[in-house]
Design brief:
eight-stranded mixed sheet; two-stranded antiparallel ribbon; about 20% strand; 10 helices; alpha/beta; Rossmann fold
Length: about 300
């Protein structure tokens, strides 16, 4: 007999300035709240949600300035996103396991530090540890920081100023992206949900000004020091980068546990920065990290 489909609904939670959109998989069980990356939406979790929704309530947000939450007003930045995430946890009767991919990891870190009472443990998915500053870039120059991240994420960031004549054209854009070569139906759902407007002028939902502002909170700037989270946390690291580069991961081995002492760092084999959530192997690794709280760190090395 086929498995019963996991219920999925879109709902809203009241936050500063209006309603925040969330996608909810499952109806009962321990609460998991998830945050996506800088130009993503809650569909980043289209494979993880159904896995955990079988016996958890998995609530994935559209962060302020993205997806169904794109019309929420500024200010943006990690403090604003953490306040929104705390409101979601409270609305669904936390505490919760927090999960964050890429920039969403930074939102999770900020939330854990500001509201540890709302968190049981955290899963950081290739994000959340301060990024190394590119050569020649100063932490005192926000414009160059923003430019550096735009370069790092490449086509995914450039698309924010583009329009597309149809949903299929937008899918084709993503199919051509090096990180999406192993195409999965979840990637189509990710692409389709992201679009706003009408044909032939569809555009990505992320507001560029939101993405640009948020980049300022993601780098290891002068004066920043390593700091433990204060809650058990796993860090899942992708060995390949945002454009599937084998020699340019988002994080080098040991970097996350250097900046987040006590985090349990491990590598998810054969995934890149995107497919660490949008592939069956990546989703399985995230599911496992949510289900089994991390134990003590072992010298900051990948397991």
């Amino acid at each position: 007999m086929p498995a019963t489909p996991v219920p999925y609904h879109r709902q809203t939670v009241g936050v500063r300035g209006g309603p925040l959109t969330v996608g909810v998989w499952g109806e009962a069980g321990p609460l998991v709240v998830a945050a996506h990356g800088v130009t993503g939406t809650h569909q980043t979790w289209a494979l993880v949600g159904p896995r955990l929704g079988r016996d958890h309530r998995f609530v994935a947000v559209d962060l302020r300035g993205r997806g169904g939450s794109r019309d929420l007003p500024p200010p943006y930045g990690m403090a604003a996103h953490a306040a929104d995430l705390a409101a979601v946890i409270e609305a669904y009767g936390g505490p919760a396991v927090l999960v964050g991919h890429s920039m969403g990891g930074f939102v999770v870190v900020r939330t854990v530090r500001e509201r540890p009472d709302l968190v049981t443990h955290a899963v950081l998915v290739d994000g959340g540890a301060p990024l190394p500053l590119p050569d020649g870039v100063s932490g005192d120059d926000p414009a160059r920081l923003e430019s550096a991240l735009a370069d790092a994420v490449g086509p995914a960031f450039a698309r924010l100023s583009m329009t597309f004549p149809s949903r299929e054209a937008y899918r084709d854009f993503w199919r051509a992206h090096p990180a999406f070569r192993a195409w999965h139906p979840a990637m189509a759902a990710y692409a389709d949900y992201d679009l706003v407007g009408s044909e032939p002028e569809l555009r990505p939902s992320t507001r560029p000004e939101a993405a640009l502002r948020d980049t300022r909170d993601m780098y290891a700037v002068a004066g920043m020091r390593p700091e433990p989270l204060g809650r058990p946390a796993a860090f899942l690291r992708a060995p390949r980068g945002v454009q599937d580069e084998p020699d340019r991961p988002f994080y080098p081995a040991g970097w996350p546990s250097r900046w987040l002492p006590g985090v349990v760092e491990s590598i998810v084999e054969d995934v890149n920065h995107y497919t660490i959530t949008l592939s069956e192997a990546g989703a399985a690794a995230v599911e496992a990290a949510v289900r089994v709280p991390p134990g003590p760190e072992r010298d900051g090395e990948d397991r």
